[in-house]
Specification:
About 35% of the residues lie in helices and about 20% in strands. The protein has about 260 residues and is an alpha/beta fold. Helix 7 packs antiparallel against helix 8. The model has no long low-confidence stretch (mean pLDDT about 95).
Length: about 260
């Protein structure tokens, strides 16, 4: 099946609905913190997957670089960027555990994003330090990662979380204190901690993951008519019923140099 068929048909917005509703949730969180620009700011996407957020940021005026170890995903990202006419989006194959070896990326970026990635990395402190090094003074880091208090969407979310980097999660998630800790030891100041992906997005994701082994097309089609509901109601319904948001999100800042 053509992995970019919907992008050819619908453009950039299709990149946000290829997967489960959590992708759109993270994009909506990002957009609120990523103003449209005409100044050519640079954005680094660490662990960019198939490139949706790097492409979207490019369409908002940023010069973006997406990094991922997965050559197949990077090929898809480049194809989708071309289809979306995101001319300022570039993608490189890079194991982000070795980001610190990239001296060419130091102090280059105005914004760095790292979405649902740090929970896969054993030395998460090193990863955040390496990303911070890529930021210019005054640059911002935006991170999303599983909330330590989440309720499992599928069986895999229960663990076990093994001390081996094999592509799965190496830890359950993060609390506010844990995120402040890794940012502080990287020399970053935390500006805001918030949450995304509420109860309706989680329930839709459970439906999709349950149907996917039967048929990916069935999984996607069954959820499609319900996709609008989380964007309309999750923000109010989730805290109302006391359900934990699935992802915790942090916005941090690299202090400027004075003197």
């Amino acid at each position: 099946m053509d992995k970019s068929f919907l992008v050819k048909l619908l453009g950039f917005n299709a990149t946000l609905i290829h997967g489960d509703p959590t992708v759109l949730d993270r994009w909506r969180w990002l957009v609120a913190r990523l103003p449209v620009t005409r100044n050519g700011e640079r954005l680094l996407d660490v662990g960019c997957g198939s490139g949706a957020f790097a492409i979207g940021a490019a369409l908002r005026g940023y010069s973006t670089l997406g990094l991922s170890w997965d050559e197949r995903n990077q090929a898809i990202a480049r194809e989708r960027a071309a289809l979306c006419k995101a001319d300022t989006a570039a993608f490189e194959v890079q194991d982000v555990r070795h980001l610190g070896e990239r001296s060419d990326l130091g102090d280059r970026f105005d914004v760095a994003i790292c979405f649902e990635n740090v929970e896969h990395i054993l030395d998460d402190g090193k990863l955040i330090r390496d990303i911070a090094r890529c930021l210019k003074p005054g640059g911002r880091l935006l991170v999303t990662t599983p909330n330590l208090r989440y309720r499992p969407i599928s069986d895999g979310d229960m663990g076990p979380f093994r001390p081996v980097e094999d592509g799965a999660h190496v830890r359950r998630g993060y609390s506010k204190a844990m995120l402040r800790e890794v940012c502080q030891q990287a020399g970053l100041k935390v500006e805001e901690i918030s949450f995304c992906t509420g109860i309706l997005s989680q329930k839709l994701s459970t439906l999709m993951r349950g149907l996917a082994p039967i048929s990916p097309a069935l999984s996607w089609g069954a959820a499609l008519p319900l996709r609008l509901a989380p964007t309309l109601f999750d923000g109010v319904l989730t805290p109302l019923v006391g359900w934990p948001f699935f992802s915790i999100c942090v916005e941090a800042y690299k202090p400027r140099n004075f003197g």
